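Form 12-C: Joint structure prediction
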Amino acid sequence: MKRTVPIIITALGGFVLIIAYFIPRTQGWGETAAIWFDVLASIAFILGGGNLLKIHLKKISDQNSGWGYSAITITAFLFTLFVGLGKIGVNPNIQYPDFAWSGSYRTIGSPFWWLYEYAFKPLTATMFAMLAFYVASAAFRAFRAKNIEAILLLGTAFIILLGRTFAGVLLTSWLPDWLVGLKLENLTVTIMKVFNTAGNRAIMIGIALGIASTSLKVLLGVDRTYLGGGED
Amino acid sequence: MKSSLLSKAVLAGLVLAATVWAQEEGPAPPTNVVATDHPWDGGTQLDVSWTLSADDAVNVATYKFYRTLTEAEMLKEEADARFKALNHAKQIVTTELFADADQQGIPHDDPELLGRIRAARKSAADEAITAVNADIVATAGETKYRFISILLAGENTLTVAKLNRAVAYGFKVVAIGKNGVESAPAVSMAAVQPIRQGFDGTRFFLSLIVFIICGAVIYYINVARSGKPLNIRKIAGLQAVYEAVGRATEMGRSILFVPGIQDINDIQTIAGMTILSRVAKTAAEYEAKLEVPTSRALVMTTARETVQAAFLSAGRPDAFNQDLIYYVTDEQFGYVAYLSGMMVREKPAACFYMGSFFAESLILAETGNSIGAIQIAGTAQPAQLPFFVAACDYTLIGEEFFAASAYLSGEPDQLGSLKGQDVGKSIVGIIMVIGVTMLTLAAIVGFDSGFGAAMLDAVDFLKSVILT
Amino acid sequence: MYEFIKNIDRRWIFLLMFVSVAIPILLQIQFPEKATDLAVTTYEAIEQLNPGDKVLLSFDFDPASEGELGPMATTFTYHCAVKGLKMYFMALWPVGPQMVDERIEKIIHRDFPDMVYGEDYVNLGFKSGNEGVIKVIVTDFRKLYTTDAYGTAFDDIPMCQDIYSVQDMDLLINVSAGYAGTKEWVQYAVTAFPDDIKMVAGCTGVQAPLLYPYIPDQLPGLLGAIKGAAEYEKLVVERYGLEDQPQYLEGIRRMGPQLVAHLLMILLIITGNVIFFIEKRREGQS
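Section 2 - Result
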């Protein structure tokens, strides 16, 4: 029973979405199924929040290693939730001046805006910027001309790296007009449009068929491992 | 002499007036506007045709095409006009009074000010509504049309889309002369209602392809069930699962499993869960510690179910600790920051990245590399594959990742589905070869030749009818 | 020295990368740009619209990728505003509305103070559901958007009153950092309604190769990362004479650090390979 009901729901949802694509009468059903998932996912935020509190409060109470980070996490979570949900420091909407909570929670100058502007924004930007450092380190360590394929990849990487900047224009500006296709900036476009597109299409076709086959296995209940196995 | 001059002037004036009148005369109107249902659609389209204006060849630049407004649209337009006038009037009054209050230093929450604003908004709204209502009454009873499209001279058909199948529509066509003057309108004889058909004919070929591929998967699942042996090539990344878990056990360190950053509705996350099931079972058998931080609450719930069942099937239900499978945050880089910190602090011996990944792939894989963990990744995000290939020990590329479940379980049902997938690949290959051959032949014989043009038409049919 | 480079601590590489990015920023080194076809088609798609035409701008990115996508979002907003187009902003990412707010504040409020909220531009805000949102609004906006980002009812907003679905837009502009983003817009909006929805997009460098298969039928214009943004910026700056306004030159400015960083990457790869071959030879000799 524990396995059968989810499989029935999965199969129903999946086949409705497939049928809705071909039968005009059922087109609205697909949208409804999509909205149901949104409703479920929204409720899951509460589940996530509850689990976050449970795990970190337990860490703090057990004084596990790194419990200080848990304390910071809980404090930041509760404070952000409070100023966001409470719309602290938010001005009323001009259409509804009588209602203090009618304004946007993102009002400039409100505590929530401050948190976003001076904590969230720089922190996430920092994490993303770290990619530049990791790419450099990975390039130094992993890009080796071990065989013909690797040499081709390295050559392509050089062309793209140069062709995507002014260095490419500068290095091959001397080429005559009849060799314009070999200018690095044009070669970059050709590689992206022809070789990259061809390779990507091959990978995408494989992935698409893999997705179709996996989805079908899930819908038919052939693959139940995500539910914890085949036993009912 | 005088009268002769006068008569000449009058004559000249008449000629000039006649010329101007002739120039400003519109073309003859189109006639016989007829609407019929558009076949094989969801009841949202009508095909309209008309007989061209008699002046089409000489004095028609374009045709303007209109359809009648539905009752709901008319009411909506009226309501829109009221809303627009109402809000505009209210907003102006509110802004003015707040500006006055600012000048006088009165705070915005002053009760007296708010009372004045309320009264002023009400009277401004009443005035605006009265004016709009008067306009609506003045034009009541007229058939109202909405402009749909402009067509060139010589064109006499149009498929009108986005219609409501519960409503009958009338149409109006006006010819526009080269001098810019409109003809009299031609109105359709009868209002016509679109009809919804049972099947969307434009997607017939797609349904056929879906049927063949799905049918092949089901057929081969049945073949496998009948006991026919099916082979699958060795996938190094999946064979390494046991090695990685074993190594973590030997070193007495934990295993980290990251199921990507997408929710459970993403098929990659589900594929990740099937691999998690196998990793968890092996970890349970080896008595290794398995930690699964997730970025979605629903993934956490699913992962707990999966791991619990795996521990049960390994005969170690007591070893299952649900607190090791927990939610971190939905925020992409918050999740990455947590994982990186945790990896550096706890130094897991094996890291699995199985699911949908984006910019975090390289950060995670490089951090894992720096702590010396054995790393296995699997994703169907082509953009992230190069990063995983560069920094991980093994990477499951695209379809290998989806084949993992069948590979690891070895169940005939699942292996059969892989064989069915190959039929899909063959179909794609055949279509590609046909398309490329036709275009190449057309290029060789010349696109202008009869054969070349036929090939181009065939390719166009393949692209825009069969593959749409 | 050889041993040092061979076993180099990766923190030295991090330091090199930091210096190679910091120096061009501090010295404000800039290089000329040449617009490629994709930037030109993107520019033309907007340039060809008439004042009053409706444009849906979906800003599906976050502060993390703002460094890469912010300049093109700014230029898109300026280009639409200067053309007098009606702008409908929305986001499939939770912090997308803040990206929209920033453009409204810095571009529209500053350079187009006569534009009226609700009549010339509107911020419809974020809706959760990723491609699910696209699937719904391509046929019915009101099913998901009952209000704008500030709580005003959808039907109370003048410029929204004649909008029923994405198909009513004259152009769809998407700036995307990943999922949900350009690929989903192409798959669920443009592919489903190819005659009614026209789209151009800007995306991160990592995403760009994946979107090339959709060019030019489903995606006539695409700006790939800062390079694409700089090329598009050049076209807009030249057309509207913005050479003296630094906020519209951010993409071009960021190409300086990009060039030096790319050169460093090439240097690192070459160094790594030199070490690899030396080691290989030593192994062969021993």
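Section 3 - Comments
Residues 34 and 169 of chain A are 48 Å apart (CA to CA). Chain A has a mean pLDDT of 86.
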